[in-house]
Amino acid sequence: MSIFDTRESPKAHPPTGSREEARRFQELQETFPEMYRRIFSDPRAERTVVVVPSMSLDEDELRKIEGVIHYEERMLCLLMLLQLPRTRLVYVTSIPIGPDVIDYYLHLLPGVPAAHARERLSLVTVGDESLRPLSAKLLDRPEMMSEIASLIRDPKSTHLTCFNTTHLERTLAVRWGIPVYGADPALTPLGNKSNSRSIMRQSGLELPEGYEDLRDRSDIIEAIVALHTSQPDLQRAVVKLNEGFSGEGNATLDIGKLKDAVSLEREADRLLTEELRFEAADETWDTFESKFAAMGGVVESLIEGPNKTSPSVQMRIDPLGGLHVVSTHDQALGGPTGQVFLGCSFPARPEYRLDLHEAGLAVAKTLKSKGVLGRFGVDFVSVPEGDRWRHYAIEVNLRKGGTTLPYLMLEFLTGGTYDSELGEFRTSAGAVRTYFASDNVVSESFRGSTPAQLIDAAIYERIQYRASSQKGVVFHLLGAVTDYGKLGLVSIALSDVAASAQYDDAVKRLKDSPALHQES
C-alpha cells in the first residue's frame, strides 16, 4: 500500500495547495525517470495507468463547447495501451461511458482478444455531469478516491495521465502516491496566452506584433492604439483571454476604422464595446470584459494573407529529458473569423513540416529549461512569401488537445512511428499513412441515434477502419451523438487527399445511411 493511499486516515494527507503537498509531489516526480527507464521500453512490463481526463479549465469557457462533458471520452484512445499484455488501465469519468463505446475500442485492439483487454480495464464513474473539473469531483468523494487507490497494485509501476495538470491533479497524485506524466502545476501559467508569447519569443520564434500581460479595458485600448500607431495599414486585431482554448476565448476587432478617428482612444473604446466580434456564440462585451479582468489576456495583430494556413507541431519532453517531435498538423479552423479548432490534417504540408520540427524543438528546449514534462503543442499562422513560408507563432498549449487522440489512434492501430527526419508516418510494414480528423462532426440526422446505431451504420456502409488494409474511419466522442448529434471521426488513408476525400464520403454516407434511420 502507498504511504499516500487514501485508505489511510485523512490526517496522512497534506492540505491541498500546501508546501508539504508540493514537496511530496516533487518527490513522486523524481521517481518517474527510473520508472520510465524500467517500464516504458518493455512492452511486457507490469504497469498501471490511471487516466483522469479532467478538463480542469475555466467553467465559463467550457460551457461554450457543446457536449463538453463527453470530451472526457477523447482520451479513450489510451485504451489501446491494453494491447500491452501486462498493462492495466483505470479510466475515470464524470458520467458512465456506454458499453457499446467501450466494446468498440476494445475490438480495435490489434492482436489482443477483447475479453483479455476487458479484464485489465477498470471503469470508474463519479455520476456528476456538472462542469466542475472531474478531478475536483473525485476529491470531494473519499470513498471513490479509496476505490481507485485499491486498483493501484504497485505505485512504483503506476502513473497518472490527465488532459491538463493543475493543483487538482497534483493533489490526486499525492493522495494516490503516483507521479503524473505532465507538467508541474506550478508551471501551468507558462501555457497561457501572455506567457506563451514570452516563451515563443525566448525560443527565437517570430510572433504577430502585439502586447501581453494586459489586465483590463484600459490596457486593451492602449494596446489597440499602439498597434494602430505602429501598423497604420493593419485592418484587424485579435483580443484573447489568457485562459481561452480552442479559439473560443478570442475576439476580433476591425482597427482599420481608427484611420479617420479624431481621438484614437475614444474610437478604440467605442469599437471595443460596440463592434468586437466574438468567436463564442453567446459571448457579450460585458461577459468578455469581466473574464478579461479576472484572467488577463493579449492583443495582437491578426495575420492576413492569401493561402494562409494554421499548422501546429506536437512535442513531448520525456522524464529522462529527451525531446521528441510527435507530429505536425494543418488545422481546420472555423467560427466567425476562422479561429475555432474544428479538425486537422496529418501531417502538415511537406513544404514546411520540417520548419515546424525546428520551431517545436526550440520551444521544447526553453520549456525543458523551466522543468516542463510531457506533451505540448505550438500553433502557428503561416503565409506564403515567394518560394518560402513565413511562420508566426501563436500560442503554446501545455496540455493534450484535439490533435492528440487521432495521432495516438493511428500509432496504436498500425504499430507505426513518426519519422521526424522526413516528417512522415510509417506503419510497422513501412507504408505511409495520413489522416484527416475532426471532433466536431455535427448533423441533425445523427441526433437521437445511439452509439451502437452509428457503429452499425459504419459497418453497413463499409467505411469502418479495417486492419487488413489499415485504412478507413474510426469514431470518437460517441457519447455526444444521441443528445447533440455530434461525434468525432478519424479518416486514415494513404495520402492527405485520400484521407480528406474519405472523410467527406464517410460523413455523407452516415448522414444518408438507411441503417442509421431504420426503426429499431
Which descriptor suits the 3D outline?
globular
Mean pLDDT value = 93
The number of domains is 4
Largest sheet strand order: 14-13-10-11-12-17-19-18
Tally the helices: what do you get?
17
**Low-confidence segments:** 1-11
Radius of gyration: 23 Å
Number of strands: 19
Description:
The structure is a single chain. With 520 residues, the protein is α+β, with helices and mostly antiparallel strands. It has four domains: 10-181, no CATH class; 187-202 and 305-401, D-amino Acid Aminotransferase, Chain A, domain 1; 209-301; 424-520, 2-Layer Sandwich (Alpha-Beta Plaits), CATH 3.30.70. Helix content is 33%, strand content 23%. The protein contains 17 helices and 19 strands. The chain has an eight-stranded antiparallel beta sheet with strand order 14-13-10-11-12-17-19-18. Strands 5-9-6-7-8 form a five-stranded antiparallel beta sheet, with helices on both faces. Strands 3-2-1-4 form a four-stranded parallel beta sheet. It is globular, with a radius of gyration of 23 Å. The N and C termini lie far apart (49 Å). The model is unreliable at 1-11 (pLDDT under 50).
